[in-house]
């Protein structure tokens, strides 16, 4: 039964509504974001829990508790510890490459199923881990799950959504990431207090809950009309599905655009640049400094273990989730470019402020004065908010909507692979960078934020309310990309 908002035809729009069928299907698929966010929050929290460190990383525990000569910035500098976090992302990078042909030739829902099942297995193994090898192998399975889910879920959401509300629906993926981070941080705060030192097992095992929902729910998901046309050229079945998800029988115009998008050859250079640049920039915002290592960072500021965990929950979870929800409400009104730019300015100012405070007020030993510590926490809140309503959700939305159908799966795999590659690099090197750069780490990432904001201002065209099947026109109308597109089209005509 159809409910909700009408999507009228005209100006590139199609007839139809946001139906309950679309909401339910996209809600289940967006669990792929929940497992991603839960892992981000959990991994950062458990690596600050003393029982976890004692069992798997005893050298770090001894350095943190007993070595007073070690700098505040270097207490957690351990390659094995960072491997616990970063191993997921190198596994996700490899998995995303294999996910591309699965998504293209077997459909979006099978990739979602594989992602949920792999993540479910990894969470069970991590919760039962008795040695570092079980722990790392579990992380690899989690990475396979996240690799498949992140490759297929944003595509699924963009292809199921009506064009007018595609931004809001696709941003549901990042909203679920935020909810996952929020849940993980509060769970860490609770399990850290369990006597006996086994609370970390609960934290790691509970990742199975959203993974189970995603795995079971994927059996009931409909395949997208785009995928049906791409895989089987089944126009009639695609039309039936399109009528069901749009809540109207008047879908011929949209169906014709889908068919044309599947058969027409286009130039891809602008899209490929964005597929590499956007996920790269998303990772060098420095968000994973906060997401992975917020408890570690807050302990560097002199906060206790419990206070560090609750502050992580409030900042990374509550602030991030609320800001992403706001992004869902306004992204299709204000557009992608404006949100990228203003979010970038917000992140830049907050990072430079945090770096300045830590450079002048936090030495190698001791802690920040209470007033300065609260100022740092406030700036981190502003930073997380800026990311959560701009580069966080838009970093997944924009790449998922700019590619033509015939290479959409491959394009999304590039996005995920680049994302995971630089997530791995940042996760693997951050603690060493923190030790060597000290407060300069915030100036380092702040510089990248400035670069990416200028990049968006100059080179990213606006894509709001443009039907996904007609996206090629935004490149032909852009001041810079239109010259490249014209040259490529003339070259193809000359070689035909």
Automatic annotation (TrEMBL):
<dbReference type="InterPro" id="IPR005829">
    <property type="entry name" value="Sugar_transporter_CS"/>
</dbReference>
<dbReference type="InterPro" id="IPR044778">
    <property type="entry name" value="MFS_STP/MST-like_plant"/>
</dbReference>
<feature type="transmembrane region" description="Helical">
    <location>
        <begin position="199"/>
        <end position="221"/>
    </location>
</feature>
<feature type="transmembrane region" description="Helical">
    <location>
        <begin position="440"/>
        <end position="460"/>
    </location>
</feature>
<keyword id="KW-0812">Transmembrane</keyword>
<feature type="domain" description="Major facilitator superfamily (MFS) profile">
    <location>
        <begin position="25"/>
        <end position="464"/>
    </location>
</feature>
<keyword id="KW-0762">Sugar transport</keyword>
<dbReference type="InterPro" id="IPR036259">
    <property type="entry name" value="MFS_trans_sf"/>
</dbReference>
<feature type="transmembrane region" description="Helical">
    <location>
        <begin position="110"/>
        <end position="129"/>
    </location>
</feature>
<dbReference type="GO" id="GO:0015145">
    <property type="term" value="F:monosaccharide transmembrane transporter activity"/>
</dbReference>
<dbReference type="Pfam" id="PF00083">
    <property type="entry name" value="Sugar_tr"/>
</dbReference>
<dbReference type="InterPro" id="IPR020846">
    <property type="entry name" value="MFS_dom"/>
</dbReference>
<dbReference type="InterPro" id="IPR005828">
    <property type="entry name" value="MFS_sugar_transport-like"/>
</dbReference>
<keyword id="KW-0769">Symport</keyword>
<feature type="transmembrane region" description="Helical">
    <location>
        <begin position="413"/>
        <end position="434"/>
    </location>
</feature>
<feature type="transmembrane region" description="Helical">
    <location>
        <begin position="21"/>
        <end position="42"/>
    </location>
</feature>
<feature type="transmembrane region" description="Helical">
    <location>
        <begin position="80"/>
        <end position="98"/>
    </location>
</feature>
<keyword id="KW-0813">Transport</keyword>
<feature type="transmembrane region" description="Helical">
    <location>
        <begin position="272"/>
        <end position="294"/>
    </location>
</feature>
<dbReference type="InterPro" id="IPR045262">
    <property type="entry name" value="STP/PLT_plant"/>
</dbReference>
<feature type="transmembrane region" description="Helical">
    <location>
        <begin position="338"/>
        <end position="359"/>
    </location>
</feature>
<feature type="transmembrane region" description="Helical">
    <location>
        <begin position="135"/>
        <end position="157"/>
    </location>
</feature>
<protein>
    <recommendedName>
        <fullName>Major facilitator superfamily (MFS) profile domain-containing protein</fullName>
    </recommendedName>
</protein>
<keyword id="KW-1133">Transmembrane helix</keyword>
<keyword id="KW-0472">Membrane</keyword>
<feature type="transmembrane region" description="Helical">
    <location>
        <begin position="371"/>
        <end position="392"/>
    </location>
</feature>
<feature type="transmembrane region" description="Helical">
    <location>
        <begin position="169"/>
        <end position="187"/>
    </location>
</feature>
<feature type="transmembrane region" description="Helical">
    <location>
        <begin position="306"/>
        <end position="331"/>
    </location>
</feature>
<comment type="similarity">
    <text>Belongs to the major facilitator superfamily. Sugar transporter (TC 2.A.1.1) family.</text>
</comment>
<dbReference type="GO" id="GO:0015293">
    <property type="term" value="F:symporter activity"/>
</dbReference>
<dbReference type="GO" id="GO:0016020">
    <property type="term" value="C:membrane"/>
</dbReference>
<dbReference type="InterPro" id="IPR003663">
    <property type="entry name" value="Sugar/inositol_transpt"/>
</dbReference>
């Amino acid at each position: 039964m159809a409910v909700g908002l009408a999507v009228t035809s005209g100006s590139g729009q199609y007839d139809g509504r946001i139906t309950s069928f679309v909401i339910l299907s996209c809600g289940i698929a967006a669990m792929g974001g929940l497992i991603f966010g839960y892992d981000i929050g959990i991994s950062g929290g458990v690596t600050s829990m003393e029982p976890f460190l004692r069992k798997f990383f005893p050298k770090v525990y001894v350095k943190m508790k007993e070595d007073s000569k070690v700098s505040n910035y270097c207490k957690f500098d351990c390659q094995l510890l960072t491997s616990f976090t970063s191993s997921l992302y190198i596994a996700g990078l490899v998995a995303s490459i294999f996910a591309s042909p699965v998504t293209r030739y077997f459909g979006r829902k099978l990739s979602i199923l594989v992602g949920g099942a792999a993540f479910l297995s990894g969470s069970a193994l991590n919760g039962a881990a008795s040695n570092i090898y079980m722990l790392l192998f579990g992380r690899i399975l989690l990475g396979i799950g996240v690799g498949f889910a992140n490759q297929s879920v944003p595509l699924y959401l963009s292809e199921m959504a009506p064009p007018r509300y595609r931004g809001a629906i696709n941003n549901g993926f990042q909203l679920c990431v935020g909810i996952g981070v929020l849940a993980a941080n509060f769970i860490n705060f609770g399990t850290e207090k369990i006597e006996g030192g086994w609370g970390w097992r609960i934290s790691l095992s509970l990742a199975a809950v959203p993974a189970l929902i995603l795995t079971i729910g994927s059996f009931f998901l409909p395949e997208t009309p785009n995928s049906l046309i791409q895989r089987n050229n089944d126009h009639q079945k695609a039309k039936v599905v399109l009528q069901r998800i749009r809540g109207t029988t008047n879908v011929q115009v949209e169906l014709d655009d889908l068919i044309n998008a599947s058969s027409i050859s286009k130039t891809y250079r602008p899209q490929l640049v964005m597929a590499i640049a956007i996920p790269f920039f998303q990772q060098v915002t420095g968000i994973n400094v906060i997401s992975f290592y917020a408890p570690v960072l807050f302990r560097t500021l002199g906060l206790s273990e419990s206070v560090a965990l609750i502050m992580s929950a409030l900042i990374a979870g509550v602030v991030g989730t609320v800001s992403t929800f706001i992004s869902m409400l306004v992204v299709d009104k204000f557009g992608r470019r404006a949100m990228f730019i203003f979010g970038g300015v917000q992140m830049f100012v907050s990072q430079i402020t945090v770096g300045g405070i830590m450079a002048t007020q936090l030495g190698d030993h001791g802690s920040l004065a209470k007033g300065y510590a609260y100022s740092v926490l406030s700036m981190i809140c502003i930073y997380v908010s800026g990311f959560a309503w701009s580069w966080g959700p838009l970093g997944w939305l924009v790449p998922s909507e700019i590619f033509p159908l015939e290479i959409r799966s491959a394009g999304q795999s590039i996005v995920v692979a680049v994302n995971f590659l630089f997530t791995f690099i940042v996760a693997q090197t951050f603690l060493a960078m923190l030790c060597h750069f000290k407060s300069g780490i915030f100036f380092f990432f702040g510089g990248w934020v400035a670069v990416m904001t200028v990049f968006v201002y100059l080179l990213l065209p606006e894509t709001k309310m443009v039907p996904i099947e007609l996206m090629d026109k935004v490149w032909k109308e852009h001041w810079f990309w239109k010259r490249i597109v014209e040259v490529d089209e003339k070259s193809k005509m000359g070689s035909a």
